[in-house]
Amino acid sequence: MNPSSSPNKPALNVLGDALVICGCQPMTGWHRDGYCRTNASDLGRHSVCCVVTEAFLSYSQAQGNDLTTPAPAYEFPGLKPGDHWCVCAPRWLEAHEDGMAPPVRLESTEISTLEVIPLALLQASAA
What we know:
Blueprint: E1 46-51, H1 54-62, E2 84-88, H2 89-97, H3 119-124
């Protein structure tokens, strides 16, 4: 389990402070609690809080992950530009390398993200 999200210790963000909620409209996060915190069962590492853009939504769909179509069975209304969403760290990095990464909310991005993405890169993409 990721130590930053253990039940006995509050999750930290990439700045070393307490993790701030990312978004609840729609509800985001691996745990669907609004926080971009992860654990060992989250193989995708949904730890990067982003402000999604039209470009990123199109990019994600082209990569096989349609985030715009509602999925009522999962109480997912579909995303629109401006929504805050926990994105998988490897996918965000891939999108960055392709020039399509959405802005990042550093205060809401879990510290474990730094195992995948350098802080300087996140800071350069801060919302």
